[in-house]
Amino acid sequence: MGVIIKEVGKALPRRVVHNTELEKLIDTNNEWIMERTGIEERRVAEEEKALDLAAAAAREALGDTDYDTIDLLIVATVTPDMLVPSMGALLKKELKLANAVAFDINTACSGFLYGLWMAEALMKNGAAEGSHTNHIGRALVVGVERLSRIVDWTDRGTSILFGDGAGAALLEMDDKKDGILSSFMKNYDDEGDVLTCGMEYLKNPFAKDEDVKQCLRMHGTKVFKFAVNAVGEVMDEALKRAGLTPDDIDHYIPHQANMRIITSAAQRFKQPLEKFQVSINGTGNVSAASVPMAMHDCYRSGKIKEGDLVMLVGFGGGLSAGALIYRA
Ligand code: ACO
Q1: Does 255 qualify as catalytic in the annotation?
Q2: Where are the chain's structural domains?
Q3: pLDDT tens, 247-258?
Q4: pTM above the 0.90 mark?
Q5: Does the beta carbon of 195 sit less than 6 angstroms from any atom of ligand 1?
Q6: CB of 241 closer than 6 A to ligand 1?
Q7: Fewest CB atoms within 10 A around its CB: which of 61, 85, 168, 279?
Q8: pLDDT digits (tens, 9 = 90+) for 272-313
């Protein structure tokens, strides 16, 4: 018995912003962005709310599934439409998921990985003999972001990197398949505040907090170094826990932050780059939505066949990282 990835979904806002459009806003150019990141364009929500994107991705993943059979909904995001209700609660209401327990998690770009990890654990816990907790037969894990709302569009170090979108995966308990084989999540302390986003609160006549600007701040080179090391560590550990070698994996689906980080992972594990899903060119970094969107691309292009071994890898703010291996 295992937890399988049954279906995936993806949604993007309509508005495309090409690198050449950014050239008009900041001191940058298409060649530099392409060479340093692999990003050519990204989507930016003009009218779509995070809820619209999350609902569209979730509906695709759900297909003709009976919505009443969804017992759990986890939404990973750093850009919810509101703090209360959570995106999970909003999405549950929007989709009319009568029986889903719904909540949000925030581990930045690793969010979708942490969501899958948590969903699998809750599903297996609920199914265990003598379990005293909710039975979860089906779960929906969604990653959604409107990063364009927290990006400083005057900062060329960050504004070129991020985009908006949503991805979703439908998980199911299966009596015959093993599905998720191993996972490993790890948090690292962000000692140098290399990746942060403040929260802007109302003026408070009593509190002595400093005013914090609500926008992404990143020390690109330090995050880059962290990412390369963390990716190696969590991939190694997930492989070890599954008793597999890098050669056994048919498809690697990494977080889409920078093409050079993906290339370095391929080199470190001595794997052909063709095994790595690359979707960054048309979307940029969409934080918690990056991995499920890239999964969607990998499935819809027909690359993943039943029985293939797939490894998902995430890393991001916190700092956080995670890897998960499953059999398709
Ligand atoms: N256009 C043109 N030139 C630029 C730009 C730009 N947009 N941005 C920086 N430069 C310049 C710099 O000023 C610098 O010039 P100098 O040498 O004259 O000082 C030069 O280019 C090199 O800058 P670096 O910052 O050293 O460039 P680097 O090769 O590190 O690339 C980048 C920057 C793309 C941000 C890279 O560091 C990166 O991708 N880091 C990882 C980011 C990442 O993965 N973030 C997501 C984490 S996940 C999450 O949770 C959000």
Answers
A1: yes
A2: 2-176, 181-327
A3: 999 999 999 999
A4: yes
A5: yes
A6: no
A7: 85
A8: 999 999 999 999 999 999 999 999 999 999 999 999 999 999
